[in-house]
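Protein fold
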Amino acid sequence: MKIFNLVSKIIIMLTFISLICVFFSIAITPKDKALTSYTPQNQVIVELSEDYYLHLVDEGLNLNIDGNIKTVRLDELGVSIYSNSSALEKFLSKIFNRETYYEITLDLQKVYKIVESLNSEYKTNPLAKIEIKQNRWEINPIEKEKYIEYEKTVDSIFESIRNQKLDINIQTNLKTPDIYIPSQDLLDSLRQNMTQPIYFEINDFGEIKKYQLIENEIYELLKPSIIHNSLDISINESLLNTKINDKLKNIPRNQEIKIKRTKVIGKDTTLDVGNISKEAYKIIKNRINHSDQSDQIISHTKYAPFTNGDKFERYIEVDLSQKMLYAWENGKLKYEMLVSTGFNNTTPKGEYQIQNKADNPFSDIDNSYMPFWMSFHKDKRFDAWLGFHALTHKINSKGKYIYEPETNLGGTTSGGCVKLGRKEAEILYNWAVVGDKVIIHD
């Protein structure tokens, strides 16, 4: 019994001593503890009052960056919260009207990410702007870059939490950005490369016509910019095509041919302006890349077919005014060949089809051989078949072959047939089949 009483007294004494310790602990606990230093785990621990903690949970922190308010939640700060008071301490705190304090652990890595996101959101990220004015390359003044310092921002956040504030002012600074600026030597070299005009020489059916794209016009096509720490110069292809078309507008092409002064039957000549523009583009691109290339573009006008390949699946078109033959297959131009036609308009206009083929028949009318023969019409005036064939040849009494000259192509040297060069006639002969359509027009 005595032992029980002794134990009871000891327990009561220890409890009394604990209460006194707790009381004095609460009584002397400061409301504002100093901010601890960074720990090896990249965390900082501060103590907050319950009222501030609850306010912080409900509303978060307001970051004021040059008048722009951004609210940051506790989870964005990597906050871990726990109370450093036991249930008994909280009970006694209420009795003695003292506040309960919470320890909050802030993850510095997450705070760093917040500052990083703020920088990406608020910094100006200026680029050097380069322009061409009066054929000179000019770089505009570079504005300083606005940025947020990580260390100062972290200190501001921690200091504000330590002082139990909900609004935090974040300071921004200005610095000269580390960006690429082209050297003056490079700009001078580019200017020198663009000085020389680009020359165009067009052979318009024997008449040589010359044009040029001068320095000012070349500069109008260029759009310089600085991208990824390098100078990028793009070329306005659409404007280049417009300029080339305007330069060559006086060259006759796509002219309408008329019969009997009223009936329009087609287009006669063409000039590949698109290819000329591509060549001009290559020259300018090589100048930008400091590559050597000729500054001259040579081109020529040529005849164009009247049809577009849409008359039949396969057909042969002969233009009497051009002395040209066009072979079409599935809407695409397969071959184009220079021909000779009948004198005194003896080659008939109209639609026909290939009737038969023969490798090398003999003509009693002309006393000559007609290689790669393909007939398409029987002329009632002469009671003779007309057809496609190679330039003729004869064999004299000594057995020597006498060939019709290639210079006859492009003229009127037959009695109504359509003559081709020997190689061209063989190609057409091997391609064409009996039944293929034939269209002949002026």
Notes: Confidence is low (pLDDT under 50) at residues 22-42, 255-266. The chain has three domains: 31-175, 184-303, 314-441.
